[in-house]
């Protein structure tokens, strides 16, 4: 397994490797969710590239960029076990040299849900992913469904900018009690960890009601909201029942809907989502 720090080295590696390249962009502090993406990439491609980069431009000024958990040594030994071919671990200067002055703005799908709470977040995400795609030139890139809006934004960017990469969505990997795995779960103290399962409980409730034939998005929103509000440590940022492609809020669900939410458990902000009807 090669560990590379510079853009030029990755480009050189890419030129020497014909055949498909599966790419998994991450911010490190890897868990079973990331591993699932990497295994998919390993199964479907000749070569597998993973990036570890805590991207400063997707964090707001009051967010946890400096505190974001990091453990490169553990990450590298895990990636080696998964038979990854190349790991790209640039520093911020490598990705954003002083002369770098281009930003990717994806438009209306970035202006909903997360944007009200993390303005500019998706500009940072789209820009770094576009740069990484330019460096790695992957055949396929793997993203988790947990970050549902991110996936919609990346698909839209790839489509609008005619990028030559296939975007693959991977289902959310959960803890035994249903909590979606996330690098940020490490922030939860034991009591908060117990409370955090409320996100999954809310999604399961929506799925159950959907299964019984409920099609009113407003009713589902209300049910989810009151379930989460019954958990004293939880504060809702948003609960959304939206069209899975446009992310527009729905009144009535036709064939399918994306249920997504951001909930703060103490100081830790968690997101989760589930698709109904697909
Ligand atoms: P991150 O390191 O949090 O930026 O995540 C890197 C990639 O892993 C993103 O595509 C995430 O959607 C994906 N991911 C994170 N958590 C999970 C999970 N629990 N299940 C599946 N994919 C995940």
Q: What report would you give on this structure?
A:
- The structure is a single chain.
- The protein is α/β, with parallel strands linked by helices and 278 residues long.
- The chain folds into two domains: 2-170, Rossmann fold; 183-273, Pantoate-beta-alanine ligase, C-terminal domain (Pantoate--beta-alanine Ligase, Chain: A,domain 2), CATH 3.30.1300.10.
- Helices cover 36% and strands 20% of the residues.
- It is built from nine helices and nine strands.
- The protein has helices spanning 7-16, 32-44, 72-81, 92-95, 121-136, 148-160, 190-195, 198-211, 217-229, and strands at residues 2-4, 21-26, 47-52, 86-88, 140-144, 166-170, 234-242, 257-265, 268-276.
- The chain has a six-stranded parallel β-sheet with strand order 1-4-3-2-5-6, with helices on both faces. Strands 7-8-9 form a three-stranded antiparallel β-sheet.
- Helix 5 packs across helix 6 (148-160) and helix 8 packs antiparallel against helix 9 (217-229).
- The longest helix has 16 residues, at 121-136.
- The two termini are 37 Å apart.
- The chain binds adenosine monophosphate (AMP).
- Adenosine monophosphate is lined by residues 26-27, 33-34, 36-37, 143-144, 146-147, 170, 172-173, 180-183.
- Residues 26-27, 33-34, 36-37, 143-144, 146-147, 170, 172-173, 180-183 line the site of adenosine monophosphate.
Broad CATH class of the largest domain: Alpha Beta
Helical amount among residues, as a percent range?
Answer: 25-40%
Bound molecules: adenosine monophosphate
General shape: globular
Q: Flag low-confidence runs.
A: none
What order do the helices and strands follow? EHEHEHEHHEHEHHHEEE
Report the CATH architecture of the largest domain.
3-Layer(aba) Sandwich
First and last CA, distance: 37 Å
Radius of gyration: 19 Å
Largest sheet: spatial strand order: 1-4-3-2-5-6
The tally of strands reads 9
Counted up, domains total 2
Q: What's the overall average pLDDT, rounded?
A: 97
Summarize the biggest pleated sheet.
6 strands, parallel
SSE-based structural type: alpha/beta
Counted by DSSP, the helix tally is 9
Reported by name, the CATH topology of the largest domain is Rossmann fold
CATH homologous superfamily of the largest domain, by name? HUPs
Binned strand content: 15-25%
């Amino acid at each position: 397994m090669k560990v590379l720090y510079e853009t030029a080295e990755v480009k050189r590696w890419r030129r020497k490797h014909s055949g498909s390249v599966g790419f998994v962009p991450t911010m490190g502090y890897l868990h079973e969710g990331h591993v699932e993406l990497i295994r998919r990439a390993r199964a479907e491609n000749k070569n597998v590239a993973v990036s570890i980069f805590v991207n400063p431009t997707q964090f707001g000024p009051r967010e946890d960029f400096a505190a974001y958990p990091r453990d490169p040594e553990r990450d590298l030994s895990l990636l080696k076990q998964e038979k990854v071919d190349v790991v790209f671990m640039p520093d911020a200067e490598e990705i954003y040299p002083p002369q770098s002055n281009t930003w990717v703005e994806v438009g209306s799908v970035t202006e909903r849900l997360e944007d009200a709470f993390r303005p500019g977040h998706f500009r940072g995400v789209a820009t770094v992913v576009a740069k990484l795609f330019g460096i790695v030139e992957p055949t396929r890139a793997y993203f988790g469904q947990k970050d549902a809006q991110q996936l919609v934004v990346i698909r839209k960017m790839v489509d609008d900018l005619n990028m030559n990469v296939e975007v693959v969505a991977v289902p959310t990997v959960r803890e035994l009690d249903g909590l979606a795995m996330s690098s940020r779960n490490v922030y939860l103290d034991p009591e908060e960890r117990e409370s955090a399962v409320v996100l999954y409980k809310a999604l399961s409730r929506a799925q159950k009601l959907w299964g019984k034939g409920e099609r009113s998005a407003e009713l589902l929103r209300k049910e989810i909201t009151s379930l989460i509000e019954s958990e004293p440590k939880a504060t809702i940022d948003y609960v959304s029942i939206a069209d899975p492609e446009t992310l527009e809020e729905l009144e009535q669900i036709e064939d399918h809907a994306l249920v997504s939410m951001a909930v703060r458990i103490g100081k830790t902000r968690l997101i989760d989502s589930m698709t109904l009807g697909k």
